[in-house]
Amino acid sequence: MPNPWFQVRDDASSSGDASDTSTSAGASEASSADPPGSGSEAGGSSSAAIASSSSEPAPDNTSTSEPGDPDSSSGDASTGGAPCNDLCGTPNCGDCPSDDAMIAFDQFSIHAHEVSNASYQQFLDAHVDPASQGPACLWNDSFEPTSWPVADGQLPVVNVDWCDAKAYCHWSGHRLCGAIVGDATPLDLAFKPESDQWHHACTKAGTRPFPYGAQYDPKACNVHDFDPNKDALLPVGTLSSCEAPLPGLFDLSGNVWELTDTCAGDDPDDTCLRRGGSLYSLEVDLGCYIKSLKPRKDAYHYVGFRCCSL
Q1: What is the DSSP annotation of 118-187?
Q2: Is there a domain that residue 256 lies in?
């Protein structure tokens, strides 16, 4: 009998729940309750909801005021007084993150864990010029998360939008996980292990529906079932039971949803694919084959990212 987890779970119909929307700089904000087990994320007319029985709570829409473009006129020691338009380790672009281990597969490498707050702070300190973004992100005038700064540098960075993630990965010398060959992954190829970096890694080249094996394990990764009375983020790369499918590769399921380079278009409201579920997710949202699309401009307190090799 075929394993149902090897079917892409995509329920675009609304279950009656409102969307979990928390927009980043320059966009209007809206929110609604969506507690664990309350039903699928509708995501509005522009997004395809993941399978029913969503585990996401209401997003945290309390955001700090946006600073706009970084003021590079005075400069600092890490940037030499000019905005960064290049990669980390080059003049004016700051040091590269020290916590940047990559795990190698046959044709690419993927970050060992989600990007941490400490690494993302290094990116902010480099004062990357927002004008250096591609056409799909020209609206994004700040890379600062909607809630920042944070006290714990080892927690995964959250409250970032797709353009923030894309810019960080470029600055760090990598890219937001996409096609194994090429750049972005078309949506119709995102669940083919021979085509997509993140999917190949999570499924171990298509051999399993969860990063740790063939069956859901409620105690393997930081998901709602792991500790339903806590629902707290864990520091990146610290949960040994969620080290899979290769040694040194952590949290491809749970902790935070991960943004990837698979989008339906180039506008701020066009949807992009997030993967892996979060600390609030239930079983139905946690397989490698879950399809969850949210607008490019949106940011959530349970969504982060990791990078892949060029």
Answers
A1: HHHHHHHHTTB-GGGS-GGGTT----S-SS---S-TTSBP-S--HHHHHHHHHHTTSEES-BSSSSSPPG
A2: yes
Range of the domain at 242: 1-7+84-310
pLDDT at 83: 87
The CATH number of residue 111's host domain is 3.90.1580.10
Chain centroid offset of residue 249 CA: 16
CB 171 within 8 A of CB 126: yes
What tokens appear for 288 in the block?
A: 């490698």
Vertex 133, ends 131 and 137: CA angle to 5°?
A: 105
Does 42 map to a domain? no
Please check whether residue 53 lies inside any domain of the structure: no
Q: Rounded CA gap, 303 and 258, in Å? A: 6
Distance, in Å, from the CA atom of 60 to the CA atom of 187, rounded to the nearest integer, reads: 28
**In the chain, which stretches have pLDDT less than 50?**
1-2, 4, 11-19, 21-80
In the chain, the amino acid numbered 115 is V
Task: Please tell me the pTM assigned to this model.
Answer: 0.80
C-alpha to C-alpha distance for 195 and 179, rounded to whole angstroms: 6
In this prediction, residue 16 carries a pLDDT of 26
Neighbouring CB atoms inside 10 A of 188's CB total 9
Q: What are the tokens at 139?
A: 């609206």
Q: How far is CA 141 from CA 83, 88, 144, 176, 262, in A?
A: 14, 20, 9, 19, 22
Q: Is residue 202 part of a domain?
A: yes
Total domains present in the chain: 1
Alpha-carbon span 172 to 170, nearest angstrom: 5
The predicted pLDDT at position 132 comes to 92
Per-residue tokens: 65: 């005021």
The pLDDT assigned to 100 comes to: 87
